[in-house]
Design a protein that fits this description.
about 100 residues; alpha+beta; single chain; YefM-like fold; elongated
């Protein structure tokens, strides 16, 4: 059985938000009250139900982000061929020169 919700007035919630979020992450539910009237609830997000794609669609629907205008595939240049260990030597020389 889950613990009873924690009731907190808005001013106290502002001051202790980090602590309240930690409690929510540990399974608690926080009810925000304004003059003893409940106005909001803070609960943990069920991450398994929200894929990245779903979260992006929700943010787009809320107007927080805009959809990508073009779906371009990023092309990276081909790697420069080198002889065995050359890249490692360059990195080591660069690190040696930094000191």
């Amino acid at each position: 059985m889950p613990p009873p919700p924690i009731r907190v007035n808005i001013r106290e919630a502002k001051v202790n938000l980090s602590k309240l979020i930690k409690k929510v992450q540990n399974g608690a539910e926080v009810i925000l009250v304004n003059r003893e009237e409940p106005v909001a609830r803070i609960v943990a997000i069920d991450r398994s139900s929200l894929s990245l794609e779903e979260r992006i669609k929700r943010l787009e629907a809320m107007g927080i982000i805009e959809p990508a205008r073009h779906k371009r595939k990023v092309r990276f240049p081909r790697p420069i061929p080198g002889s065995g260990g050359m890249a490692q030597r360059f990195l080591q020389e660069d690190r040696d020169n930094e000191s």
